[in-house]
Write a structure and sequence with these properties.
The complex is a heterodimer.
Chain A: H1 5-23, H2 26-42, E1 45-47, E2 61-62, H3 72-78, E3 81-82, E4 86-89, E5 94-97, H4 102-130, H5 133-137, H6 140-147, H7 153-187, H8 197-219, H9 222-248, H10 252-258, H11 261-272, H12 276-286, H13 289-293, H14 299-304, H15 309-333
Parallel strand pairs in A: 2-3
Antiparallel strand pairs in A: 1-4, 4-5
Helix pairs in contact in A: 1-7, 2-7, 4-7, 4-8, 4-9, 7-8, 7-15, 8-9, 8-15, 9-11, 12-15
Chain B: E1 9-21, E2 28-40, E3 44-48, H1 55-62, E4 70-75, E5 78-79, E6 89-92, H2 104-114, H3 119-132, H4 148-160, E7 166-170, H5 178-193, E8 197-201, H6 205-211, E9 214-219, E10 222-228, H7 229-232, E11 234-235, E12 240-241, H8 244-252
Parallel strand pairs in B: 3-8, 3-9, 6-7, 7-8
Antiparallel strand pairs in B: 1-2, 1-4, 4-5, 9-10, 11-12
The chains are: A mainly alpha, B alpha/beta.
Chain lengths: 336, 257
């Protein structure tokens, strides 16, 4: 059966993006980062109680650094447990005493890997490195021959966008999947929540790369795409975090700002722009980190101000869709 | 395309006008103004004119790379909006450039797939073309290492990968050595022998005179002459042969003014 030109275009552009990433060395750099992270995970070990919770009660424990932890009589009479485990890195070369139980230690480690290495550092590096893909693809001499092929223009721009997303997905799967298996093998902890980092990272990247695509179509300049997308991420994150800070603060000044025009403007910006901080909160919540490390914001108060994680993700996606639509329209109307 | 059902001309331009607006200013540049002509089947059609006369803009409009402001263009019997007709068109850009990380074979396979050539046909077609254009030994090297002449040959090979019924060559001789020029001549003659059409944009009136059946001269975006090359190469007043250069020279005069 003959494949449609659009499917053929998408398939070719996905392969083309992988070739481009291999030729530019990005593929290998990300692979090395993933392999190193997997090796680190293969070097960990954890000892101690899996959980300090007793029955349905919330955990009641003392850190071993607490002065009362040495008072055995007091401990016996109160029933409080002392956290006594260890988290070891580099095959025991580096030992970190557990502040709580092993489950929370692994959650914390996964939070660093998923939220810090993959979703923040990895996202920034990938946004920077892939920002040049579209401008070089749209170079007048390169693109002219492709524009004289049967596939519609929107398929070229969305095909390249999807190509980059598939590349990021493949890297996220290697990183998160590899580290998850390594952690599982070393600790016996196979909690699936960490795997949520993959779709979250992809979602996060897809939103900000859509902005990079629009910049590429408008300017065809890699530098503008790099700085523009990073700056936009900072603006969106600040708007997201700042708005939550504003609505959850109890002080009079915050309440004054909330009811002012500036407060309405912040609220408007929050709902219109993508919400990277909310995506971070989603991962934080999925890993159960909120109950272990404290919550960034009181979700109850946020909910009173219209916050909903589903709505947050959907509005972020809608923003990306609008950007892609605008990019496709601009590209369609551009003479080369 | 069946000869009985195919349209009477490979390309038709009717009163085509293209105006470029310069960004951030209200200045407008008229690239083409009310240009009308058609490219018959089985002919090699030359498009000549001084620099900035609108030749490249015209072929870009035909290939849907840019859009006309007004007028009507038919490509292989269909309107410009019918992109399926592009599957039967081959194009060589005036300054060919391809993704530098691809190999010649990957490029031919990829661009062939984008033109709708079945994967089963592509393998043999790519080999044929790489062999024909002397690139078979370098087919696994990245294009980044290719010389300008090799890039020109690769550009020609990619334009032929889909066995086009209309071949558009925009300044294809630039940077080509003598053997490559001979190859180009062979390609053009072969396309004509198959009953296919070729549009050749060139500054070389010698090439146009040697290869084309018909020629159109553009000047400052206007069509100033169309005619058969053999008729132009004959001085009607003196009743003797003349070069195409001397026949078209008066049309070029004052073009830079």
């Amino acid at each position: 059966m003959k494949r449609s030109p659009i499917l053929t275009t998408f398939a070719w552009l996905v392969r083309d993006t992988f070739r481009q990433s291999i030729a530019h060395g990005i593929f290998w750099v990300l692979l090395v980062i993933s392999v190193l992270s997997i090796l680190v995970c293969l070097s960990i070990s954890v000892s101690g109680r899996p959980t300090l919770a007793q029955g349905d009660e919330s955990p009641d424990f003392l850190s071993r650094r607490d002065p009362d932890s040495t008072n055995s009589e007091k401990l016996k009479s109160s029933g409080v447990i002392v956290a006594d485990g260890n988290f070891a890195l580099a095959f025991g070369a580096l030992n970190v005493p557990l502040a709580r139980d092993t489950t929370s230690a692994i959650h914390f480690f996964e939070l660093i890997l998923g939220g810090g290495v993959a979703d923040t550092l990895g996202l920034m590096l990938t946004l920077i490195w892939t920002a040049g893909f579209l401008p070089s693809f749209l170079d007048g001499r390169n693109i002219s021959v492709l524009l004289a092929k049967p596939a519609p223009r929107w398929a070229l721009i969305l095909g390249k966008y999807c190509g980059v997303l598939v590349f990021v997905l493949a890297n996220a799967l290697v990183f998160v999947g590899g580290t998850w298996i390594a952690i599982g093998l070393r600790t016996g902890f196979w909690g699936p929540a960490y795997l949520l980092s993959v779709p979250l990272l992809l979602l996060h990247f897809s939103i900000f790369f859509a902005f990079s695509v629009l910049l590429a179509v408008c300017t065809r300049n890699a530098v503008v795409c790099v700085f523009g997308s990073i700056l936009f991420w900072c603006v969106a994150w600040s708007m997201n975090f700042g708005r939550h800070l504003l609505v959850t603060s109890n002080d009079l000044m915050s309440q004054g700002i909330q009811s002012s025009f500036f407060g309405s403007l912040v609220d408007f910006g929050y709902w219109v722009l993508p919400k990277p901080a909310d995506l971070g909160m989603l991962l934080f919540g999925a890993l159960g980190a909120g109950s272990e490390f404290g919550k960034s914001f009181d979700t109850g108060v946020l909910a009173m101000h219209g916050f909903s994680m589903v709505l947050s993700v959907l509005t972020s996606l809608a923003f990306a869709a609008v950007l892609l639509f605008a990019s496709a329209r601009k590209f369609r109307a551009t003479d080369y | 395309m069946d000869v009985r059902t195919r349209p009477h001309a490979a390309a038709v331009f009717e009163k085509v006008t293209k105006v470029y607006r310069l960004p951030w200013t209200s200045r407008r540049i008229i690239a083409l103004e009310q240009v009308s002509f058609s490219v018959p089947w089985g002919e090699v059609f030359g498009l000549v004119g001084p620099n900035r006369s609108g030749k490249t803009t015209l072929v870009k409009i035909l290939l849907s790379i840019c859009r006309p402001n007004s007028g009507h263009v038919m490509r292989l019997g269909g309107p410009l909006s019918d992109r399926a007709t592009l599957a039967d068109v081959g194009y060589v850009h005036e300054n060919p450039s391809f993704p530098r990380y691809l190999t010649a074979r990957q490029l031919l396979n990829g661009y062939g797939r984008l033109s709708g050539v079945p994967a089963s046909r592509l393998r043999t077609r790519s080999d044929e073309l790489l062999e024909r254009f002397g690139l078979i030994d370098r087919s696994r090297e990245a294009i980044a290492s290719f010389s300008k002449g090799m890039l020109q040959r690769l550009a020609l090979a990619q334009a032929l990968v889909n066995e086009p019924k209309l071949l558009v060559l925009d300044e294809p001789c630039e940077g080509m050595d003598l053997p490559a020029r001979r190859m180009l001549d062979e390609v053009i003659c072969h396309q004509r022998s198959l009953g296919h059409s070729v549009i050749l944009v060139s500054h070389s009136l010698a090439d146009i005179g040697r290869l084309c059946d018909r020629v159109a001269v553009l000047r400052a975006g206007r069509l100033v002459l169309t005619g058969r090359v053999d008729e132009l190469a004959h001085d009607a007043v003196l009743q003797e042969p003349q070069s195409l250069e001397s026949a078209l020279e008066p049309l070029y005069e004052g073009a830079l003014a």
